[in-house]
Write the structure tokens for this entry.
Amino acid sequence: MPNLLEVRDLSKRFTSAGSAFRKARSMHAVNGVSFDLAKGRVIGVVGESGCGKSTLARLILRLIEPSGGAVHFDGDDLLAKSPAQMRRLRARMQMVFQDPYSAIDPRYTLARAVAEPFEVQGVTPEKPMTDEVAGLLEMVGLNPGLATSYPHQISGGQKQRVGIARALALRPSLLVLDEPTASLDVSVQAQIIGLLEDLRSDLGLTYLFISHDLSLVKYFCDEILVMYLGRVVEALPDTAAPARHPYTRTLMESTFEPDPKKRRLIAPLEGEVPSPFDLPPGCAFVDRCPNASALCRSETPALSTETGHAVACHHPI
Ligand SMILES: Nc1ncnc2c1ncn2[C@@H]1O[C@H](COP(=O)(O)OP(=O)(O)OP(=O)(O)O)[C@@H](O)[C@H]1O
């Protein structure tokens, strides 16, 4: 399959304002990230809180401007597009957020919430709007009779279904799913994951799936990118591939507990995560790594891609 998305050396630097007592500081939230996503595939991005997953998602949709790098979507160089061209392209690349409460205006009926993308983009749907809305609600497993309800009248899981219906309204080919089930109860999570699986096969969608839950990513995705402090430290070409980076291995070992309520989400790792404003030279994982050597403290390991299974480690497993 051809690539729908090609991301090259994508970076984002944030600078905190200085004060009389502290100098301005800057950090790389995303640092030199590259990957391809083929049409119809699902790539998972996993890592601890603050590793740059959401920033990566926002950069890809150009909701924020990168400090460097390139993003090609279906052959289009996104960074060369004007704001108007970008707005039109965004109809084909939509995002589903973790918090369905903030994604829907509480004053809107569900019909209006689902119809809003057509208004924003100035697109006239093929069918009359009420039929279009009913079709979208049905597509996400909701009774079209709910169209006149308000968000406070439905459950969290139903709200996330509405969020997905909105994202699908303009028939996108790429969905960026940013922790779409993290705020839901476990049983509802499973239903939403099932819905996303059905939609993927029915509509031929391509997903970028962001999560801190490696066992969920292993279940749902075809390939996995593991991020640590802004960088991809391992790119697993399939979910059965054994971890080669010590960080990925620890994540895998820490998520074997089948009951997600008992599962510690990520990593009983020893050692401190270094401040992203003050990264040590060499590998950022060095102080938490059982395999660290002097080389790891002096040279940042590059992401080697010799085998198609890329790992950024001087001493991979
Ligand atoms: N607008 C911003 N200004 C300054 N720093 C930011 C901004 N957005 C994110 N950051 C910083 O960038 C880093 C990466 O944040 P990001 O939200 O992308 O991580 P994440 O992996 O998605 O975390 P989480 O799972 O908690 O959402 C963090 O250190 C965060 O504090």
In short: The radius of gyration is 21 Å.
